[in-house]
């Protein structure tokens, strides 16, 4: 039996709110549709359950992309966490989610009982979500899939600030974000972006850190062209 | 020292009190005549007050909304989902914690009225049918509503504003919740009553409604009503709720458009 590609929803790339009917399934037959975050099936319709932009990821996969202050943990997300407590077997890390995340003491490169890392309360850590479940606390790891530390671990010095989850997604988007593109051409700095809406910036000069942080924070509600203009304006003031 | 006010002293409370008494007397006179009469703000019986709504006034909250219907001004902040307190038992569905409070200057008489004490539980009942509690087990969502100025029909405005704040916070919901109240005066039914009109009503009806699903989440009835008039009043409320639902949707979409530009 031939599977036809489902017709895209007319609301794709439009803003939807809870209760909006995204797709009518009564008009479709023998077609598979995958539902991402913020969507649910109600009889013969697909309805939105949260406010945001409807995205079509694949020909048959839909999800709602929204910008929030709170973060919902998802497997393979890279996050910036703050150590809030230490236990014999794991660290308790705040990742701006509904629950605190566990970071096992052995989930570091070459981690054994003999060389357990010692993190003080308040330490900033760049980690990867390995387990995410609504019933259990999320689990983090400071290793990539191959067991190497890669870019994960403790972030020393620098400055960390909070943004929305939408902003952090924009900073990590595939064509480089206009703000980072313009700043990267003129200034030398390090940046770590967590999908949980936290950004860490480090640079040799404090003025650079302040400028980069302000530029990112201001750019949240601006279009690409306005972002470039704003960054150039900030750079002019610095020089 | 004399307690008497000097000749140059301005006393706004006395003047406001006189005006309020005059309005009440006029309203009582109209009720005695039992005929169609003009409302103090010039609206017809089936007209709602002009509405202004906005999302995101509270930066510290996960989601927030501000609503202004005539003189009634409400601000709602939503916090969470966040971990439930250790003392609470495990729950495989989330908890919705609602709290309604009044500022000391919200009403002409200082302090929260006896009628308003149960608004917190009524807000909870109106919202819990729309919020998908199973999507955040073991956690709590806190909804704090603050009435800045009370000008009548407080509860419906609190419910609508709380629904907007929950949507702004990204809480999973089956649909937005809108609410409208009507008051009954002898043979007349008036929608969205002011505080002066509420003081003289024979009965009131508050409907909380999900416009897209066409479902009522809460219906509160007080006073004397006949069967036919209840049906008319509920239909009137549902129609107004549907229109208010469109305003809420437009408000959320406008906010998103402004953020993207």
From TrEMBL, chain A:
Residues 158-205 form the K Homology domain. Gene3D superfamilies: 2.40.50.100, K Homology domain, type 1, Nucleic acid-binding proteins. It comes from the Eukaryota. Keywords: Cytoplasm, Exonuclease, Exosome, Hydrolase, Nuclease, Nucleus, RNA-binding, rRNA processing. GO terms for biological process: CUT catabolic process; exonucleolytic trimming to generate mature 3'-end of 5.8S rRNA from tricistronic rRNA transcript (SSU-rRNA, 5.8S rRNA, LSU-rRNA); nuclear polyadenylation-dependent rRNA catabolic process; nuclear-transcribed mRNA catabolic process; poly(A)-dependent snoRNA 3'-end processing; TRAMP-dependent tRNA surveillance pathway; U4 snRNA 3'-end processing. Its main location: cytoplasm. Belongs to the RRP40 family. This is Ribosomal RNA-processing protein 40. The gene is LOC100282437.
UniProtKB/TrEMBL annotation, chain B:
It is found in: Cytoplasm; Nucleus. It comes from the Eukaryota. One of its GO terms (biological process) is poly(A)-dependent snoRNA 3'-end processing. Pfam families: RNase_PH (PF01138), RNase_PH_C (PF03725). SUPFAM superfamilies: Ribonuclease PH domain 2-like, Ribosomal protein S5 domain 2-like. CDD domains: RNase_PH_MTR3. InterPro entries: ExoRNase_PH_dom1, ExoRNase_PH_dom2, ExoRNase_PH_dom2_sf, PNPase/RNase_PH_dom_sf, Ribosomal_Su5_D2-typ_SF, RNase_PH. This is Exosome complex component RRP41-like.
């Amino acid at each position: 039996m031939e599977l036809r590609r489902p017709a895209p929803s007319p609301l794709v790339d439009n803003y939807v709110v809870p209760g909006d009917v995204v797709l009518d399934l009564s008009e479709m037959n023998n077609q598979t549709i995958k539902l991402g975050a913020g969507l649910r099936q109600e009889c013969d319709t697909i309805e939105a359950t949260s406010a945001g932009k409807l995205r079509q990821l694949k020909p048959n996969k839909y999800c709602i992309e929204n910008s929030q202050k709170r973060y919902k943990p998802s497997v393979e997300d890279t996050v910036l966490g703050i150590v809030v407590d230490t236990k014999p077997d794991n660290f308790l890390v705040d990742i701006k989610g509904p629950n605190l995340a566990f970071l096992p003491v052995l989930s570091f490169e070459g981690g054994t009982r003999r060389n357990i890392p010692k993190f003080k309360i308040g330490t900033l850590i760049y980690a990867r979500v390995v387990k995410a479940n609504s019933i259990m606390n999320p689990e983090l790891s400071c290793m990539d899939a191959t067991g190497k530390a890669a870019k994960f671990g403790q972030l020393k010095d620098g400055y960390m600030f909070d943004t929305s989850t939408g902003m952090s997604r924009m900073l990590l988007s595939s064509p480089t974000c206009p703000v980072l593109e313009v700043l990267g051409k003129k200034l030398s700095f390090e940046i770590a972006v967590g999908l949980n809406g936290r950004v860490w910036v480090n640079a040799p000069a404090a003025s650079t850190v302040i400028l980069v942080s302000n530029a990112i924070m201001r750019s949240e509600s601006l279009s690409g062209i306005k972002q470039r203009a704003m960054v150039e304006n900030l750079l002019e003031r610095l020089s | 020292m004399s307690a008497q006010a000097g000749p140059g002293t301005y006393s706004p409370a006395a003047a406001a009190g006189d005006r309020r008494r005059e309005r009440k007397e006029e309203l009582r006179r109209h009720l005695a005549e039992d005929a169609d009469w003009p409302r103090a703000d010039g609206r017809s019986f089936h007209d709602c007050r002009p509405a202004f709504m906005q999302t995101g006034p509270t930066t510290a909250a996960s989601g927030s909304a501000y609503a202004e219907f005539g003189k009634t001004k409400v601000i709602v902040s939503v916090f969470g989902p966040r971990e439930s307190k250790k003392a609470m038992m495990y729950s495989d569905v989330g908890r919705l914690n609602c709290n309604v409070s009044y500022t000391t200057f919200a009403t002409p008489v200082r302090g929260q009225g006896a009628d308003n004490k149960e608004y917190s539980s009524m807000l909870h009942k109106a919202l819990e049918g729309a919020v998908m509690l199973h999507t955040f087990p073991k956690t709590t969502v806190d909804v704090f509503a603050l009435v800045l100025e009370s000008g009548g029909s407080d509860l419906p405005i609190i419910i609508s504003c709380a629904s907007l704040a929950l949507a702004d916070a990204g809480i999973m919901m089956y649909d937005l919740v809108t609410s409208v109240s009507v008051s009954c005066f002898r043979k007349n039914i008036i929608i969205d009553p002011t505080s002066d009109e509420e003081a003289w009503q024979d009965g009131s009806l508050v409907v909380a409604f999900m416009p897209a699903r066409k479902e009522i989440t809460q219906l509160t009835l007080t006073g004397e009503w006949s069967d036919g008039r209840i049906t008319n009043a509920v239909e009137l409320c549902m129609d107004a709720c549907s229109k208010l639902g469109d305003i809420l949707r437009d408000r959320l979409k406008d906010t998103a458009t402004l953020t993207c530009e």
